[in-house]
Design goal:
The protein is α/β, with parallel strands linked by helices. The chain has three domains: 313 residues, ABC transporter type 1, transmembrane domain (ABC transporter transmembrane region fold, Up-down Bundle); 173 residues, P-loop containing nucleotide triphosphate hydrolases (Rossmann fold); 56 residues, no CATH class. It has 22 helices and ten strands. The strands form two sheets. Strands 6-7-8-3-9-10 form a six-stranded mixed sheet, with helices on both faces. β7, α19 and β8 form a beta-alpha-beta unit. The model has no long low-confidence stretch (mean pLDDT 84).
């Protein structure tokens, strides 16, 4: 069992961490919305003192009416009536001013924080983003991040507003009935601790279910996603996916039901104790009026102020516990924005050039995080400027991994990859990506127009120049396909926002055209024609050789009809280079390449 001292120490640490996070969040909000925050604080102070001021004015009004009596002068009564009207009107208007400022802050923060999360995600390494354990942190950080910061500000303001109201009303009630101190603090402090622990339990429950929420979203996407629906329907996976989805949500509901029950029980008990205590004191004040020790104004103000006090104390406690809960969620955002896994950019710039680049791979070793065997184990080969080189090997030989290393999506564990004699780790990242163009095996299918799908390849120069995009499409041979679309280059492609979907081969042709749109000295193609038949691939590769004339190309392919046209072939096996040479040279050597070629020819004679 944990000792009381340890429990107190743990609680103190948690409160200190929450205070630090709250300070970070407030600084962020202040930096982004200073004017709105100042206005919000002003409204908060006014709203905080208005109930007590209104209660005092009502007391004076009641006493003035009693003192004047029937037929008396009404000057004092009129003054207090006008004052009460002004305060009541100000209280009503301040509510709408408060809502306006809160909504403005929420909108501004949502815009800024969402952008910051996306920008920061764009700086993180691919290894970090691919790590499933890191996905939970990413999901926690991006879920309503801006709303959480706005809610923190709103909750803190509400805590202070209600706190000022409670303190000022309590002062008024103490003046009338000092025994109110025996009712409010003894109940409020335990209730505040209860709500804080409940807020922590709610956060912990949500923290633990992030992965399950991702699963629930995955099941939903499988049931309704345009690319998965055909197979899930054919396999009749609907009942299974729905059952798994509902099991997850039922687990969430059952856990939340326990928390709701705790909240209801604790809140009901606290309310009963406060109401019972205040009504006992109300009875004392009533008898005091009868005995002449209190005025009717005292009775009137006690009735209204006691009710408002109970509401203010309850509101302050709930707002404070909600603020504590928001800080726990904001800590996820703070942790995510503090992650620094970006591979450092080099400092050397590459000059613009029109010809091909020289590529050298020098004794490269690489293993994925958590992997038991190296994917690349001492790989070395050279590609001369303007040369077209094919990478060949069985699945798992390391071809795609090597392509990602050349793109510097990862850094090798050992060895070097050089471009024109410079280690790519020393090159400015933007220059490297401008010099090397890629079509990766899992190429993107952008939900946008056909023109945008090409222009994204060099968007800074092409997106506002449709004529240049059309030129690239003509040279790549995809313009006839685009002209057959309903709106030509302006046709919105994809199934999420458009009405036209392409075949896998057509998407792949657009991806290859996108790569050619870049003025790159080195083009890396990872299975660029996997969705094309042998004849279409042959025609496309012949056209590619013409378009890429003078540029260096590295091609990963399983199609030997394509491989044979390369200037040089590098054969990989189990992460090592086992052969290098032209098609004819490797066939004469009767080694690994010849064996793979013979195996492919026996199974796919139409592709040779």
């Amino acid at each position: 069992m944990t000792s009381p001292r340890r429990r107190v120490g743990a609680t103190t640490r948690e409160l200190r961490e929450q205070a630090s996070t709250a300070a970070w969040g407030i600084q962020f909000v202040w930096r982004e919305c200073r004017g709105l925050v100042i206005g919000s604080i002003g409204v908060m102070v006014v709203r905080g003192f208005l109930p007590a001021a209104l209660a005092v004015v009502v007391k004076e009004l009641v006493d003035a009416v009693i003192e004047v009596g029937p037929g008396g002068g009404a000057s004092d009564v009129s003054f207090w009536l006008v004052t009460a009207f002004v305060l009541a009107l100000l209280e009503g208007l301040s509510f709408f001013a408060d809502r306006y400022l809160v909504d403005r802050v929420r909108d501004e923060l949502d815009l800024r924080v969402s952008g910051d999360v996306l920008k920061h995600a764009g700086t993180l390494s691919l290894e970090f983003l691919e790590d499933p354990t890191r996905r939970d942190l990413i999901d926690r950080a991006k879920t309503d991040a801006g709303q959480r910061l706005a809610s923190l500000l709103s909750d803190l303001r509400m805590t202070m507003t209600m706190g000022i109201q409670a303190a000022s009303l309590l002062a008024v009630l103490i003046y009338i009935e000092p025994f109110v101190l025996l009712v409010i603090p003894p109940v409020s402090i335990p209730f505040l601790l209860f709500q804080w622990r409940l807020a922590k339990q709610r956060y912990q429950a949500e923290h633990r279910r992030v992965t399950k929420r991702r699963w629930s979203q995955y099941y939903s996407d499988l049931m309704m996603g345009p690319y998965s629906v055909p197979e899930t329907r054919i396999l009749d996976l609907g009942p299974l996916l729905v059952r798994r989805y509902q099991e997850l949500l039922a687990g969430f509901r059952d856990r939340d039901r326990v928390l709701h029950r705790k909240n209801f029980t604790g809140s009901s008990l606290a309310t009963f104790l406060v109401v019972a205590g205040l009504y006992a004191l109300f009875a004392r004040v009533t008898f005091g009026v009868i005995q002449g020790t209190a005025t009717v104004g005292d009775l009137a103000i006690f009735t209204g102020a006691a009710s408002r006090l109970r509401t203010a104390v309850d509101g302050a406690i709930r707002a404070a516990s909600s603020a504590a809960e928001q800080t726990m969620f904001i800590a996820n955002l703070r942790e995510f924005l503090g992650v620094r896994t970006t591979m450092p950019s080099g400092g050397r710039s590459l000059p613009l050039r029109s010809g091909g680049a020289a590529l050298s791979v020098r004794d490269v070793h690489f293993s994925y995080a958590g992997g038991t065997h190296p994917v690349l184990d001492g790989v070395s080969f050279d590609v001369q400027p303007g040369e077209i080189v094919a990478l060949v090997g069985e699945n798992g030989a390391g071809k795609t991994t090597l392509a990602k290393l050349i793109a510097r999506l990862y850094d090798p564990d050992a060895g070097q990859i050089q471009l024109d004699g410079v280690d790519i780790r020393e090159i400015v990242t933007e220059d490297l990506h401008a010099t090397v163009s890629f079509v990766l095996q899992t190429f993107a299918r952008y939900e946008g127009t056909a023109s945008e799908n090409i222009g994204f390849g060099n968007w800074r120069e092409l997106l506002d120049r449709p004529g240049e995009i059309q030129r690239v499409a003509r040279e790549a041979g995809v313009e006839p396909m685009i002209q057959e679309l309903p709106d030509g280059y302006d046709t919105v492609l994809g199934r999420l926002f458009g009405t036209v979907s392409l075949s896998g081969g057509q998407w792949q042709q657009l991806a290859l055209t996108r790569a050619l749109a870049r003025n790159a000295s080195l083009i890396v193609l990872d299975e660029p024609t996997a969705n094309l038949d042998a004849r279409a691939e042959y025609n496309l590769f012949q056209r590619f050789k013409s378009l890429a004339a003078g540029r260096t190309a590295l091609i990963v392919s399983h199609r030997f009809s394509t491989i044979a046209m390369a200037d040089k072939i590098v054969v990989l096996a189990e992460g090592r280079v086992v052969e290098v040479g032209s098609h004819d040279e490797l066939m004469r050597a009767q080694g690994s390449y010849a064996a793979l070629y013979g195996l492919h020819r026996s199974h796919f004679p139409e592709e040779i």
